[in-house]
Structures are given as C-alpha cells and as structure tokens.
Amino acid sequence: MSSLSTTLRAFALVLASALPAAFQSARANDFVVYTPYVYQSQTELEVRGYRFSDSRPDIHGEQGAELSVAHAFTSWWKPELYLVNYEREPGAGGQTTGYEFENTFQITTPGEHWADVGFLAAYEHSTLSDEHDEVEFGPLITKTIGRFTHTFNAIFEKEVGTGFGGRYEHRYAYSGTYAVSKAFQPGIEVFARPSDDAYHAGPVVNGEWHVPGTTGNLEYRFGVAFGLNRNAADRTWMAQLEYEFF
What we know:
- The protein is mainly beta and 246 residues long.
- It has a single domain, classed as Porin.
- The chain has one helix and twelve strands, in the order αββββββββββββ.
- Strands 1-2-3-4-5-6-7-8-9-10-11-12 form a twelve-stranded antiparallel beta barrel.
- The N and C termini lie far apart (47 Å).
C-alpha cells in the first residue's frame, strides 16, 4: 500500500472513530458531500449517482442514482424532494426503491464565524417490501481559507416503524477542494461507513458555469473513490450534475 493510501486510510479511520459505529448498504447519497448553504428563491434540479468497479463479482457493477428537485423558500431553509431513487445490484435488474424528503437548514451567516454551519434532516420512504423507512440527520460544516474549501458531514440514520429499537447508524464524508477557477476546482473526498468497515477516498473535480442568457448555473462533480480496505469496493465512480436558477 502506498504512503498516500496509508495516509488517506488513517484520515478516514479518524473520521470513523468520532462516534459509535453503524451503517447499512450503499446508496447514491453515501457518496456525496453536502454543503450548509441556502440561497433564497433558488431552484435546483439535480441528478447524481455511483457505480462500483471491483474484481469481486458480488460487488462489481453495483450502482445507484437519484433525481431530485429543490427550492429555497427562505434564506435558511431549502427542502428537496427525491423523485427517483434507483438501485441495481450485481447480476440483477435495476429498480426504484422509494422517495425522500430532505431539508437543509443554514444555521450561521457565511463568513461570520470560524466555520459555516448547517443541518441536514431527511425522511426516506421505501417502496420495497423488504426495506423500511428511515430518518437521517446531522451537521454540515464548511471552512474556506483562501482558495481552499473544507467540508465535513456527520450523518446519522435510523430505521423507523413498528418493532424498531433505538439503534442509530451513521456515515462520514469530507471534501477538500482548491479553486483554480469557478469552473475548475479539483480536490479529494473521503467517505467512511464504519459498520461495514468500508472506507473510500479519491480525487474529484468540481465546477460551475453560468448559462448565458439565463439566471441559471450548471454545476458538475466527477470523481473516483478508491477502497482503502478490503471491505470497500476497489473503485467507486461518482457523478453529479445540477442546474440551479432563480
């Protein structure tokens, strides 16, 4: 294992050790880093997804995607509705799995404190007979220093419904980017799923373009996260596109 991979795995393990371990299976929102920012009156259309590439046939080809629409009704609250949640397991056909209602709350005014803080709260309804509804919530923290931006998420999850106890599961995500320009911001992302003992990290590139003649911008994010231990997929390919307008 290279020194870079060793360093990244150590960093992921630090993230994972902050709270008691637990998690479930991978989904598209497991490989995204949320920011705390809300822009009043902005509407967003977003699609994002992932795909595993691995030498093991029970992992290779697993993929998932989500399509959502959001609108910021205030300067601090942005609800988002996931219209399509899609998953495909290796050797099986794809299927939609349910819907999700997600809320981003911007808690601090950007730039007024040491870091910008928000909060995520969501309810996911499963349409599969062998799956259950879930709630998830957690802090979103971003710190910008010059051209460098660091974002950290700690998202807790809990199945809800008759017969479920008080056990919470969680995941962590970190993004560090450098703004070469508004349209080109390379960086690195780290994802930790403690209960699966699965840790990923790898390069990403983000950017944003203004669409001429409109009030809208097109944002993109592409990357690959490499498995840092045996329980993680060798490679997770990630893609995200978003059109936002006022």
